Structures are given as C-alpha cells and as structure tokens.
Amino acid sequence: MPRAGLTPERVVEAAAELADEIGLDQVTVSAVARGFGVKDASLYAHVRGLSDLRSRLATASAAAFADRINTALAGRSGHEALAAFAQAYRTFAVHHPGRYAATQLALPAETLEASPGHRRLVELTYALFLGYDLAEPDRTDAVRLLRSTLHGFAALEAAGGFGAPRDLDASWARMIEALHALLTRWPPAPPSATLSP
Amino acid sequence: MPRAGLTPERVVEAAAELADEIGLDQVTVSAVARGFGVKDASLYAHVRGLSDLRSRLATASAAAFADRINTALAGRSGHEALAAFAQAYRTFAVHHPGRYAATQLALPAETLEASPGHRRLVELTYALFLGYDLAEPDRTDAVRLLRSTLHGFAALEAAGGFGAPRDLDASWARMIEALHALLTRWPPAPPSATLSP
DNA sequence: ATGAATTGCCTAGGAGTCCTAGGAAAGATT
DNA sequence: AATCTTTCCTAGGACTCCTAGGCAATTCAT
Fold first, then answer.
1. Is A102 in contact with A54 (CB distance < 8 Å)?
2. Which of B9, B41, B109, B120 is 20 to 30 A removed from B51 (C-alpha atoms)?
3. In angstroms, what separates the C-alpha of A1 from chain B's closest C-alpha?
4. Pick the CATH number of A8-186 from 1.10.357.10, 1.10.10.350, 2.30.30.100, 1.10.10.60
5. Residue among A145, A159, A187 whose CB faces B104 most closely
6. pLDDT tens figures, A3-46
C-alpha cells in the first residue's frame, strides 16, 4: 500500500489546477482525491472539508494573484502602472479562471483579514491611485469603479457574455485608456442639496 | 393524495423565489420539491432536470429584469436615461440576487437567442447609447465598459467585496456621474501604429 | 535492530443530491 | 360509468460530503 504523499499544500495546489481546468464549482473533494488516485475519505486528514479546501484555495489564489500584480506594478506609476495592472489582472483571470474565481469567494471577514494575498491586493490597488490626484471619498469611489470594471469584464468574459464580433483585447485596451482619462479628470462632486436652502 | 398543482411555470417561479432567499447555487430540485411538499421525483414531470430548471430560471429572470429596465428607461434619454438604467439595474440586483445571478448564467448560444428577455436587455442597452455620440467600434467598447462596471459592482456588492466604510449608494451615484462624463467625452482612438510607417 | 508510536490511507456506512423506471390514484373525457 | 390522461408516488442506482474505526507504512526510542 504505497502512499501518495499528500499534504495540505499539495491538496490545495491540485485543487487550484483542477479549478482552472474544470471550473471552481466542479472542484469536489472526490475529484481532487481521484486526481491523487486516493479515496475521498483520505483527504479529510489534510483538509477539514470542502469549505476549508475552498477557503485555503481562495487565500492561496489571492497570494498568487497579488504576486503577479506586484510584479507588474514594480517601478511603474501613473498611466503605465494602470496599464500594467489591468494587463496583469486580465491575464491572470483568463489563464487561471478557477483561481481567479476563488479570489472572489465570499469569505468570513476574519479569514479575509488573515489572508496576506487579499490584504496585498487591496494595498496594491490603493498604491495604484497614488498616481492620480484624488482625495477621499473620491478615491474610494474611483477604486470601486476600477475594481467593478475589471472584475465585471473578467466575469463577463469568463461567462461568454460578450457576443459582439469586436475583438476583446481591443475593447479592453480602449476601456483602460478611457478609465485613465476619467481618473485624471475625475468630475467634482455636485453641490449637495443640503447646503443650499 | 391531494395534488400540489405543479406546472413548469410555478416550479420556475418557486425556484426564483428560493434563489433570491438562499442563493442561486443552493437551488436544488429537492429543495424546490420540498417547498411544494412533494417528492423530488415529481418535479421531473414538469422540468427535464436541474440544468433545464436553471435555464428556464435564467430566461424568466432576464425577462423580469428587462421589464424593470424598460420601465425605467421609458421617456428618458441621455443622462436621465443612464441614471434610471443604473438605478433599476442595481435595485434589481440587490432585491433579487438569485434572479440577477440567473440572468448571468452561461447558456448555450441558441438558448440565449431564443430568450426574449436576454435579447431585450441587449436592445435596451444599445438604446441607452443613442443619447451619446459614439460610432463603432467605440460604441461597443463603451457598452462593454458600462456593462462591466454595472455587473462588477453588483457582483462585488453581492459577495460583500466592498469593505471600506464609504456609503455604497453614494459611491454608486458618483460612479454613474463619472461614467456619464466619460461617455460624453469618450477619448479618441490613439493613432494606429500600422498607419504610420 | 527491534519494539513502540505516529501518521497515512483504507473500508464501511449514513445522509443528501440528481435522475430513471414503473405503479397507483386523481381528475378529465367519452 | 368506464376509460384515459395526468399527477404524484415508491424504489433504486450513482455520485457527493463527511465520520468512525482499522490496518499498514514510516519514524522514533531504546
């Protein structure tokens, strides 16, 4: 009875590869076990269960994602930084759809705070905005706009939601240019109604 | 043995309500059957199976969604139309998270083309852009930007992805204003490298 | 080197899910 | 009233998650 050499790390790594191949929600304890040529019950010695596996997959994927973003951002600022960020973002989402989906899993707040990858992603995103002259709360609004657009595009692309014949790469490039233009000329807040009696 | 009065429509309606309550991916044939006080096998007389149920739920939800958008858009154009569209979009996504998620399910192309709701959503989105002076391919790029932003925000909000204390309604309003500004002054395409030898 | 302790993977089994096949009863039709 | 159709049932197979307890492979202590 030879051993497969399972560890929590290898189980999570296998789950990550499986997620990229067959989709995150097709990743089951049984399927990962099959990949090791092992019975499903054997995995429970290394991982508490499916939700634990998904949670570990989420933090591992976020760390990998943050790494790519970090590398892309190194030494760049302003428009260059935004373009590199967006490029790295979409590349990761396209090449690692399962891992990308895992980074978007809704986790308990304390798990999220204990995940270096997730924290780093937030830091890197805000660092990107040092290149734009935005004060709070405009900065947070702008961050939310950028995050929404990048994630929305990735989600729609993954779901095959873009039907028009127009090339996706070209659309993506133009969108990023447009966002850059918007961030450099963020419209001022309209006068608040409560201040004019 | 009294009958529950099942029809495909009522099954789909029950599935839609369940999806809004417990989440789309918690909707199972068994759970819907339980809601009717009926065995799971009984549903297979009305729906071919889980994937058929999800497909029907997607088209029904898209129709409902298109209805709200349509109502919001009636008689409006330009900035007003965009604001009403965005408002209706987010309201639906927040109040009907399961149905909204169903509208984003990846369906086979022929199913999508046969779904009036999905078609109507595309039409309404392009109608919105009559108020902006954009020629192809810029229009498609702009449509993709808007769709990405709206869907991304809805997805991140549903997943609890916005941690900052800043009010979500306020961010949403500012984002829509910013997008309006962007659409009215869409940056021109950069000179193509292939045209300058 | 040999016995003990630990660790890794196993079998067995319960509960829930999707789905099929065939049976019985409620309601509609003639 | 008799027949037919529709609706819902029971029974059961395959797959999932997960627990409990057992045997074997490895490591550790003597």
1. yes
2. B120
3. 39
4. 1.10.357.10
5. A159
6. 778 899 999 999 999 999 999 999 999 999 999 999 999 999 99
